[in-house]
């Protein structure tokens, strides 16, 4: 099935730059921020945002990695379970402004799991959500605070965010699932 | 660490992480049917569980609504407590059946006791039994996952996994390491599972014991198995040279026939791991012990509590290993 490129590396670079500005603006600086990337692709995105924020504000913002496997609501029904990876957040998040970062916002179930995981680690002042793509089809009352691009999509389509650190290049593609639905 | 393969990164319900395709076990009976990749997966999962154990709130909701039952037909302190705590940290419910206080003494058969636990909705049953093979019998007759927490002289896979994990954590790998197991190897299920595990991971195993404490048929086993070399060295001073990890074992008096040893004093003289002998091993060598320790017999107190001892850490790692195994065998449709 042919993949259509929705966004190029340049587009992603500009989106992250804009989101970095928006995060600083909304939180009046970066002093109390903690960036938490959701495994797998949220983690490199969080690291890039931290660099952008440092260049703008001169502050090193702590960056963590969150694994939600232990908090999924579909644990018993999954065909095969996810490999649990280590959650690694280098600082206490209590009273911090936590920015949760993921590549795609879809049903919202991963974000629900991520919020449960975060409140087990402390009591943040706020949790905000930044995503590169919001593709709709929410199943829970969840929305993002920072959105790179809204992509109205059909459930039969697949949206794939590639990041250089993992996939070798930056791009967003859309394709129709084999077999459709 | 596994990096996600390209092109499987399709965004299903948001980013789906790599899945556990390589895990095939419904039961944990021994390590003889494990692969190196599976053991490494257990290690990786345990790393994540160790992070949970460092938190202020050591509880995650993963196994909510699942029930773990333990049936211990032999005494135990650490293993049962460790399984119970591991299950509770994952939010599972736990029933503990003490064979001494249960219908077992009224003459109920093992299978019937286990069927009762199954009928009550247990998803996993952890068994310790004095008869080798009892967990295998259970696995054949029941539809729940069985974990062997020690069967007779035969196997104790979760203990061996935590031993492997502890060495791996300190020395970075197991491949090519020299591991010395000392003492009552015949009666030690811990040693037996460790021999499998260490060999699968590529470590060289040296068994050091008087001939009367070595298992029957050991030579046939060594010649017929296609694992890395397992050697027997009855002289402790020679066995310890260049060792990376050392595991003295308790003399299992409850399982021994009499007259296996001329005298305890002689055993101590020849086989006790003391500071002087420890210095023959590599300077980074780790001292492990599956517990319970009989201080002053198989191990001198200064070694058991010394700088090279990781005995206490083994207990913490055991909790992480058991959480990882519960995660891996429960749930998911197979």
Please name the defining characteristics of this protein:
heterodimer, A: 181 residues, alpha/beta, Rossmann fold, 5-stranded parallel beta sheet, 27% strand, globular, B: 334 residues, 4-stranded parallel beta sheet, 12 helices, 11 strands, 36% helix, 14% strand, disordered N terminus
Description:
The complex is a heterodimer of chains A (181) and B (334). Chain A has 181 residues and is of the alpha/beta class. Chain A contains four helices and eight strands. In chain A, helix 2 links the parallel strand 2 and strand 3. The longest helix of chain A is centred in the first third of the chain and has 18 residues, at 9-26. Chain A is globular and about 45 Å long. Chain B is α/β, with parallel strands linked by helices and 334 residues long. Chain B folds into two domains: 18-156 and 316-333, 3-Layer(aba) Sandwich (Rossmann fold); 157-313, Rossmann fold (3-Layer(aba) Sandwich), CATH 3.40.50. In chain B, 36% of the residues lie in helices and 14% in strands. In chain B, helix 7 (218-224) links the parallel strand 8 and strand 9. The two termini of chain B are 24 Å apart. Mean pLDDT of chain B is 89; it is low at 1-17. Chains A and B meet through strand 4, helix 3 and strand 7 of A and strand 1, strand 2, helix 1 and helix 12 of B.
């Amino acid at each position: 099935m042919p993949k259509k490129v929705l966004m190029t590396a340049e587009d992603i670079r500009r989106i992250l730059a804009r989101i970095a500005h928006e995060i600083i603006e909304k939180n009046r600086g970066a002093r109390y921020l903690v960036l938490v990337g959701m495994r797998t692709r949220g983690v490199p995105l969080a690291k890039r945002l931290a660099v952008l924020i440092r260049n703008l504000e001169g502050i090193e913002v702590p960056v963590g990695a969150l694994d939600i496997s232990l908090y999924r609501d579909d644990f018993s029904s999954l065909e095969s379970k996810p490999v649990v990876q280590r959650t690694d957040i280098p600082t206490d998040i209590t009273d911090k402004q936590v920015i949760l970062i993921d590549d795609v916002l879809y049903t919202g179930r991963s974000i629900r799991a991520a919020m449960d995981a975060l409140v087990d680690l402390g009591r943040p002042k706020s949790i905000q959500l930044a995503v590169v793509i919001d593709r709709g089809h929410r199943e829970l009352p969840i929305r993002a605070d920072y959105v790179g691009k809204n992509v109205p999509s059909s459930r039969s389509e697949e949206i794939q965010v590639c990041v250089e650190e993992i996939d070798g290049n930056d791009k967003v593609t859309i394709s129709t699932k084999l077999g459709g639905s | 660490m596994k990096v996600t393969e390209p092109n499987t990164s399709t965004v299903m319900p948001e980013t789906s992480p790599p899945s556990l395709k390589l895990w095939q076990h419904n039961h944990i009976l021994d390590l003889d049917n494990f692969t190196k990749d599976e053991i490494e997966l257990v290690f990786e999962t345990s790393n994540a569980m160790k992070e949970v154990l460092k938190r202020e709130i050591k509880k995650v909701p993963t196994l909510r609504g699942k029930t773990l039952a333990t049936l211990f037909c032999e005494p135990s302190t650490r293993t049962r407590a460790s399984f119970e705590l591991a299950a509770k940290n994952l939010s599972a419910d736990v029933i503990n059946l003490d064979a001494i206080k249960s219908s077992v003494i009224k003459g109920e058969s093992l299978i019937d006791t286990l069927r009762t636990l199954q009928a009550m909705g247990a998803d996993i049953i952890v068994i310790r039994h004095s008869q080798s093979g009892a967990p295998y019998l259970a696995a054949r007759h029941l539809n729940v996952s069985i974990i062997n927490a020690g069967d007779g002289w035969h196997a104790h896979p979760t203990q061996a996994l935590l031993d492997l994990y502890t060495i791996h954590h300190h020395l970075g790998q197991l491949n090519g390491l020299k591991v010395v197991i000392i003492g009552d190897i015949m009666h030690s299920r811990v040693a037996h599972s460790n021999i499998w595990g260490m060999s699968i991971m590529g470590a060289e195993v040296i068994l050091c014991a008087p001939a009367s404490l070595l298992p029957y048929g050991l030579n046939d086993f060594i010649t017929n198995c296609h694992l890395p070399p397992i050697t027997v060295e009855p002289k402790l001073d020679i066995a310890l040279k260049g060792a990376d990890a050392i595991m003295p074992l308790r003399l299992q008096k409850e399982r021994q026939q009499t007259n296996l040893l001329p005298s305890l004093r002689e055993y101590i003289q020849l086989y006790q791991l003391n500071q002087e002998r420890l210095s023959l091993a590599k300077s980074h060598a780790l001292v492990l012990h599956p517990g319970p320790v009989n201080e002053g017999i198989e191990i001198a107190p200064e070694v058991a509590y010394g700088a090279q001892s990781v005995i206490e850490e083994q207990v913490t790692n055991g909790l992480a290993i058991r959480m990882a195994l519960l995660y891996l065998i429960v749930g998911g449709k197979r």
